[in-house]
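Now for our target.
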Amino acid sequence: MEGPSPRTSAASAPDGDRVGSVGQDGVRHDMDARTGKKIRLGRLVRPESGRAVVVAASHGVNSGPPAGLRTADEIRSVFATLRGADGVMVTPGMIPLVEDTFTGRDRPGLILHLDWKNHARGLYTPGADGRSEGVLAQLSDLESVAAAGVDAVMTYLYVGQRDARLERAEVERNARIARDCERLGLGLIIEPRSALEGDDPGALSAKVMSMYCRISADIGADLVKALWPGSAEAFAEVTESCYVPVLLAGGKGGDDPLDTVSLAHQAITAGAGGAMFGRRVFRADRPEQVLSALHAVVHDGVSVDQAMSLIA
């Protein structure tokens, strides 16, 4: 299975994004941002399986210091165990602290958490009733991101707001980021969410998730990150209608490695393009062993029992 392909071709790339020369065969050979995107995505998504195991370690920017990554020493200690991941997601401020994790051969791809948001935050929660439609802010310009050696960025796409202007702003913001990523050769992961999670019982239904995952792909996402809708059957509906790889989000669980591996196995069986787990990995007693088990499920297609034999 091949990994995701860049969306723009050399023939269609804007002239300003193309650098080339005429070879001995008399044909013009162009270098462009499409090649950069292909190389960067190839660091995250293994060409052999077409899937990825990514660790999300950027929770602090939205909700404050998470258990397991509260201090600089904890961050350094955990990141020393994450070198087997296909990719690791961090915030802009974390990069100087953990850049050695990404330096050298056989290291994870570098993913930048591009957005801040305050939806459903537990402390200083927006909205009188503890929830609101929330707001978002971009944490860096894409030129600086590319200069830092980042392989891909992740943004949120919130839909279903009661104020339709907020949804339009979200689509416009993500479309602008998608075009910037194409121009600069960066991979783009979109995590779509319903603004009505917690209020609308159908916010995590296969119907709603299929809608917002497809919107994300149509805007220009190379990969889509999605929550678990409650069953493999429902998740299969989502993956079938999204033509780019869908990475399963880990959610709030993580204490039981068997639950983590089983969830990943269900997702792969339902057509997932991999897993993008955070707390399920960095809070584990031995994150490197959990990663090994996830790799076995995601890339090698082994059973849960076989994968669990890799965890002491």
Observations:
- Confidence is low (pLDDT under 50) at residues 8-16.
- The chain has one domain: 36-308.
- The CA atoms of residues 37 and 186 lie 5 Å apart.
- The chain has twelve helices and twelve strands.
